[in-house]
Design brief:
Elements lengths: L1 H38 L7 H6 L5 E4 L5 E4 L17 H13 L3 E8 L7 E10 L5 E7 L1 H37 L4 H33 L7 E4 H11 L1 H7 L2 E6 L4 E4 L1 H17 L6 E9 L2 E8 L6 H4 L11 H7 L5 H11 L3 E7 L3 E11 L4 H4 L23
Parallel strand pairs: 7-9
Antiparallel strand pairs: 1-2, 1-5, 3-4, 4-5, 6-8, 8-12, 9-10, 10-12, 11-12
């Protein structure tokens, strides 16, 4: 009897020990699986399918900032599978999310494409999905921020700028009424009123141009644009102003360069630079307009020998309604919108504007645009008709003339 009990106790003890060993083995295997899951660099199942379906730029990276999977839109910001993230800001956000173990959000300035592409305002959300993997989702909020900024600034700036010419028109109307019996005074006040009306119309037109450029990220009539034709049109538009100011405009540089964009917008942008250079140049001086190719970027530089811009004002000259020289702007009828229009017009074409200036030495504004190959002109221009035996007596207008 006792022998049987001892056998049973031994058997029970063996079962308990075996169960404990099995439990330890199973626990160790589960711990190993958990550790492997936490340290694995393979993208979890379903994540790649989710990324393929996303419209926003998004990607998964590991601890070395190498991209393992991405959405199609992510390549717009220079993110490519199997490569290390190029933007240091994105690396930092991913690292912070991984170190803290929780998702974070930041707004960053990232270039959409290579320089001189415009830096975009991007909302970045980084979320760790394992100990080694981090998911980053990007959303371009440039337009939303631009619209919000316009809404904040428009009323304050525009009402202030419109107040001056509107008030002047009101005062001149009263003066004309008071001087009704004096024809000479009436003509004098009417002439001044006409100048204020012209200034008001110019201000309204420029506000509309700037609003149109800021309201849309897409150009309407994109085509291959000849820089030679843009420069010619811009200079012809301000020939009278240059003659009146006794300023000589000199043109030079490389010819035959092309870009993609809207000719009218580019001509207006370059024209604004030419007009400013003429207005701020002394009599008898020269304004230079030069074109050159810098690798794959077309540069159009407008140089004057005028009063120059102090270094403290150079970072603000592209702001709406900002004037470095208030007195001269009042004399010349400047609206303070020309350079802002230039900046936004060039950015819409994937370029940038650079400024060099020294007080009393002059300024150089340089438009930089991505170059495109010259088009096959035979496919875009109609073939000349075969000459008739009869000679027409109607003169044919030269290119650029209007009927």
């Amino acid at each position: 009897m006792e022998h049987t009990q001892l056998v049973l106790l031994a058997l029970l003890a063996g079962l308990l020990v075996g169960a404990a060993i099995v439990g330890l083995v199973v626990g160790a295997l589960r711990a190993r699986d958990r550790s492997m899951a936490q340290t694995a660099v393979d993208v979890p199942e379903g994540v790649e399918a989710m990324l393929d379906a996303m419209d926003d730029p998004a990607f998964v990276c590991d601890t070395s900032s190498t991209v393992l999977a991405l959405s199609p839109a992510a390549e717009v910001f220079g993110v490519h599978a199997g490569e290390v993230i190029a933007a240091e800001e994105l690396k930092r956000v991913a690292r912070v999310a991984r170190d803290t173990g929780s998702g974070i959000s930041e707004n960053l300035r990232l270039r959409r494409g290579a320089a001189p592409a415009e830096a975009r305002l991007v909302a970045v959300r980084a979320t760790p999905i394992s100990a080694r993997l981090t998911l980053l989702v990007l959303r371009d909020i440039t337009e939303r921020e631009r619209v919000e900024e316009m809404r904040r600034d428009f009323v304050a700036n525009t009402s202030h700028e419109l107040k001056t010419p509107v008030g002047a028109v009101g005062l001149l109307a009263e003066a004309i009424e008071s001087a009704a019996d004096d024809p000479a005074q009436v003509r004098h006040f009417a002439s001044r009123m006409q100048a204020e009306v012209t200034r008001l119309a110019s201000l309204v037109n420029r506000i509309m141009s700037l609003s149109r450029l800021q309201a849309s990220d897409e150009l309407r009539d994109v085509r291959d644009v000849s820089i030679d034709e843009v420069v010619t049109a811009a200079l012809e538009a301000y020939t009278v102003q240059a003659d009146a100011a006794q300023v000589t405009v000199v043109r030079g540089g490389t010819k035959g360069l092309w870009v993609r964009g809207e000719p009218q917008i580019l001509t207006e942008a370059l024209g604004n630079l030419v007009a400013n250079a003429i207005a701020y140049s002394p009599q008898g001086s020269k304004v230079g307009v030069g074109v050159k190719l810098d690798d794959t970027v077309v540069e159009i530089a407008v140089t004057d020998r005028g009063i120059g811009i102090p270094e403290t004002d150079q970072h603000r000259v592209f702001e709406r309604f900002y004037r470095a020289d208030q007195a001269r702007s009042r004399r010349t009828g400047g609206t303070g919108l020309g350079l802002s229009i230039v900046k936004h017009a060039v950015q819409r074409h994937g370029g940038e504007v650079r400024l060099w200036s020294r007080p009393e030495r002059g300024s150089t504004f340089t438009i930089r645009l991505p170059m495109t190959e010259a088009p096959d002109l035979d496919t875009v221009r109609p073939k000349p008709r075969r000459k008739s035996r009869k000679t027409s007596t109607t003169p044919v207008p030269a290119k650029g003339d209007t009927a």
